Amino acid sequence: MPLLVPPAPSGTTFTTTRPAGPAPVPPAEIPPERLLYEETLPGGAGWSWSLRRHLTLRLTALENGANVSLICFNRHDLVDRYNMADTLKGQHTAKLTAGYILVSDMGRAMLSITGDTLGWHDAISGHDNAGIVRQKWGERSYQAARNEWFQNSRDHFLMELGKHGLDRRDLVANVNFFSKVTADDEGVMHYVPDHAKAGDFIDLRAEMDLLVILTTCHHPLDTAESYSPKKVKLQLWRSDPPGPGDWCRKYRPENERAFFNSEVLYI
């Protein structure tokens, strides 16, 4: 392992230069020898997984209008979890795409976005709950409808948190992959329907051992006429560790510090 040296302090602004040239192009098809796991999640489902460092989680929309709401935690220190505010302000952005990283409460790189076919993922709108679903589409219980019942991200997050000894106090602000929300000059937020098309994908490389929790429920601002969450494919694959010139590491000076903060955990 090379000698780790803390990056020099640096002040940045919205005009700080990004890496030159286009982002690296991820493989459209994961090489079979690198693919470790594959699963299709139906719309309205919840899922949690212990994701090992330097493995990549690929999320693929299987239908137009998919949404994946995601939170994550340091697998070995669960009080260290995804921090939406630090992720966005440290990288001078209100959206996420290739090059950006998800940052923890303790300033550590958690997930790097190493591949993305969309260019915009919502990081500010939160997730839906039973009240939102009821107001938009009514109510349908499991007892009455079995697997066709109406589900929501809040309940799934709480159920998956409980499996790992966590509870509602640990429910943090989430990312909504595959969804796009804009704001007009008055600050009013607008949801973009069917932003993701079937086949769109995003690659998320773990920079530390993580507990990842996600749902495939509706975005909270979804304007769909009927309850119809979309299915998503999950794939885990063996990616290469980030080198000194890694695109995400170099995307912002703040990212280099976050990578360093994660890497010192593994000395």
Automatic annotation (TrEMBL):
Residue ranges, annotated region (Disordered): 1-30
Pfam families per record: DUF1989
Residue stretches of biased makeup (Pro residues): 21-30
Domain DUF1989 residue range list: 39-211
InterPro entries reported for this sequence: DUF1989 (IPR018959), UAAP1 (IPR017792)
PANTHER family registered for this protein in UniProt: RE64534P (PTHR31527)
Matching NCBIfam families: urea_degr_2
Protein name, per record: Urea carboxylase
Organism: Termitidicoccus mucosus
